Amino acid sequence: MSVLAKFQQLPECPVNDETLHMAFVGAYNQLALMGKRLKLDDLDQRVLDNCIAALEQIQTDVAVRLNHEVDGYNALTEALETMQEQLSELSPLKGEIARIRQEAQEKVEEAERAADMRAMQAEGKVIQAENAHNALVADFTTAQLALTNMTREFTTYRRKYPERMALEVQNKDNEISQMRADRKKESAIKQELQLKLNTADKEVGKERRLRADASAELFKTTALYNNLKERVEFHDGREDVQQYLLQTKDGSGDIGCYIYNFHFGLSVFHGVKDVSIETANFHFQIRTAMMLAMDVVPGIWGNPVFQLLPQLVGIWDTAINDDLHARIMARIQMDYPKLHQRILDGKAAPLSELVIPAKAANLLQKAGYETVADVGGELQCELLKIKGLGEQTVTDIKAAVNSWCIAWSRAHGDIENIKSNRVVRRKYQPENSDKAV
């Protein structure tokens, strides 16, 4: 009989994989049954779970090792079969093959012994795990006995001191009830205080609004007072009433003219709204010995705007116009400083700064107009008297003056709102900054 045949006819080990598996399953069931029978706390349950996990790891290691040995055994069997075939083909080498077979048999036996040794070691580990589990069970039993003893002592204490414990519980309940009542009372006080605070906030807000209104009214009154004060200081009732004598054409006598100052404005009249300040804080009046008077309003170029009486045409003294112009410029400098500066710049600006045809510029120069202010301060009806200027040309000249004013405002800032009184003008800006008058 060949070595392979003898090797294959070896008796099987009485402890096979199924036997080991059933042993481990029995150990698991015993541990699980112990966990169910005993009332374990969290710590004991964690220790028991760790034991089960260690036993599962041992089972896994044993299975891996046995599978490894089986794989080696199968590989060795395949090698022996291969060698048997080779020995059959090589009969001269049977002796050598027998020797090799013997060595292989010895190695197999040695491997089996090693496997048995490892199995014994695994069994030892299992025994150690069981001993550790038994020790844990003993500790758990001791803990249960201690818990039982403590429960018995607590029962004895409660039986011995029942009134004291009830009194302590009642005192604690009374304290809790008192604290709840105090908290409820404090909450009501807090709500009452919050309502008072809200009312106080409303009163404070109302008082602040009243104080703001009073402050605004005080500011307005102060501004009005300052305005009136400036006007009174400027015109203190001792105005210099200048007299001018006009010679009549027939030489029959002189006509006396007097200039009077007035501290309030007049509405624009006679269709000259585009060249005069509509509601200035002042105006003038020229009175004659003939009991006739001419109201004078300030022009936006500082020139006097009034309607000359027919009786005075031809004998009028232009020095009256110069005097009125000086008076108007003094008031404009005080009431409208930006407008005053624009008038001065217009007097310094040559006629060439107006974008008008060359022919119109020559006609204006020949008529004696040299600056922008000269043309801007002239009435349209007076410009139409210049020979060679028609209505369309005069309209274009006025438009050129208006364009010059817009350019000046962009470079130096807008002038004051000359359509409002002084107090309001201090608080508000002009509605249209690009619109020049």
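the 2nd protein, sequnce then structure:
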Amino acid sequence: MLRIITVCGNGIGSSLLLKMKIDAIAKDHGYDVQAESCDSNAAVGREADLFVTVKEFKDIFPKDAKVCIVKSYTNRKKIEEDLLPVLDEMLNR
């Protein structure tokens, strides 16, 4: 199971929507993930297999953190385009 943290500025709206999209995408594609949403300040102190966020927050993470940059918090097609190759790579599909 991959532990995923979605990240936005306040950790309430955008990251929660992204988390729900990731849950649906993972279910539809057969990925075993546990996703949660978080604000950008708290995210840097958290541990996860993968952080998913937009480009504005990409530089807040340590260099060794696995980060997936998505073009949208809400557009499923755009999220899939950015996320699925990363999940495939991480799960060796």
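The helical segments are 14-29, 40-43, 76-90. The chain has a mean pLDDT of 95.
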